[in-house]
Amino acid sequence: MKHSVCRLFSLAAVTSVSCVFLSSCATAPLDAGQSRLNRAAALQKSAGSPTKDPQRFVVSNLRAAELASGDSSPRAKAIYEKSTSSLADWVISDCGHRSTATYSFDGMTYQLTIPVAGERGLVSPSAMESVKPASEVPRTLVKIWESRPGAGVPLAARWRPQNGAVARFMSPRGYAAPVTALLAFPDGRKDGAPQAARLEFLDPTVLTSVPGTRKPLAADFSAPLVDRTRDVREFLIALEGLIDPEVRDASLYFLEPYDPHKIPVVLVHGLLSHPRMWRDVINELTADPAVSSRYQFWVFYYPTAWPIAYSAMRLREDLAAADKAVGKQKHIVLIGHSMGGLLARMQAISPGDAIVRSQIPPERRAKFDSLPPEHLAKRTLQFEASPAVQRIIFISTPHRGSKIADWSLTTWFTKFLRLPTKLTTAAVDLIPTLVSSPEQYSSISRLSPSNPLYKVLEGLPIKAPHHSIIGDRGRGDTPNSSDGVVAYWSSHLDSAESEVIVPDDHGAFDDPSAITEIKRILKRN
To answer: 209 in helix, strand or coil?
Structure first.
C-alpha cells in the first residue's frame, strides 16, 4: 500500500511537471517572422471581394504583400504571389482604375501607383483581360519548362482583342507573351503619410532585372505559351487543312504585341502540320535573353493541300499587309520546315516569267499576259523578291522534291484532296487539266522531284543569306543520308552560309542541336 501511494505520488509529480513544461512551450512567443506571416495570412484571408469592398480588398492585400516582402521563405513567397496576382487581376479587370489612388482601411492607408505607359519594357494593364500566376499553369506540352528566378510574380495573361489593322494578326487565342507583375514598397515612409506602393507589369523578354536595380526579374516563358495553346487540336486542324483546304484560311499571326524595336522571326510549318509544332523552338528562343530582346515571333498558318506557289503568294501578301499595319519591316528572318521552307524560299527570289513558263502551257501564255496585275494567277506566278527578308533558315526542306510524293500509296491519297474553289475558278482558263486532274496540283503531288518548279528554283539565286539544318536519323551517313522523308541531295544547298546535320528524323526542327543552331544564327544576325 505504501509503495502504491509512492508510485501514484511520483506519477502525479511527473505529470504535473510535464504539464507545466508543455504549457510553457505552448505560450512561448512566436518567432517575429512567423508572427508577421501569420498576420499577413490573416489579412489575405479577410480581404474579401474587390466588388463588395475595394478599400478593404486593396489595403489587406497590399499589407499582406508588404509583410511578406523581403522574406525568402516558401510561405512568404506564396503570400506575396497570391496578393500580387490578386491585385494584378483586379487592376486589369477594373478598366476604370486610376494610375495613382489612395486606399484606407482599418487605420492603414496606401497610395498605390500603377504605371500605364512609359519606358520600353512596361506593359499597360489595359492590354490584358485577365491574368493568373504562372505557377497555376499545368507543366505540360513543352520539353523544357523555361523560367527564371527573381523578383516579381510571373503571369499567364489573357490579352484583350486588338483594334484596327493589327486585329487580323492576333490569333483568336490572343498572344502568348510572358508578363511579370512587380509589387514594391519604396522606402522613406513619413509619419502620418500613406505608405507608397507601386504595381508594375513588366516584359521579361525586354528586361532581365528590376528597373533601376541589379535584382534579377522573375520570368516564366513557358506558362503563357502552354496556357494559350494546350487545348489546340493540332493534328485535327492540320488534317483538315490537308483534306479540306477551305475549312480555314491562311493567316499570319503575331505571338506577342508588336514591338518596333524587335526583328520579326516568321516560322512556317510544313505539310500536314500546324504552327503549334514550333512550341519548343519558340519556348527556348524566348527564354534566351540575347534572342528575345532582339526578336519577336510570328507564325504563318496555311492549309497544306494548297499548291506551293499559291501558299507562298499568301505568305507574301500577309507580310505586305503586316507592313501596312505596323510599319515597313526591314530585317525579317524566315524559318521554314519542310514544305514551309519552299514557301520561305519563294519570298527571296525574283522569277520573272520562269515560273509562268513552267506551269502555263505555251498556248495559254498570251491569255496569261493579258490578265491584270491583281489577278490571282498573276499574283501567284509573277513576283519580286522581298527586300525585307534578310535571312532564311531552311529545316528539312525538299529543295528538289521528295520521292515519297511518287509512292503509289501517296498517289492514291492525293485523289481525295481538294483545291480551294477560288484557285480553280481563277486558273481554269489557263490550266485546263486543273479541273480534270486537280490532284496533280495538290501540295503533295507538287513535292514530286518531277515538278518543273524545282528546276526553276534551282536556276534562281536566293536573294538573302540562308542556312540549312538537315536530319540524318543519327546514322552519320551524309551525303548519302535522309531524314526519312527528304534525302540529303534534296535538302543540301551549295549557296548556304552554313549547314548543320542533326541526329534526328524529318522532325529535326525541335532537336536540341537544331535549336542551338537557330540561336547561333539569330545571335550572329
So the answer is: strand
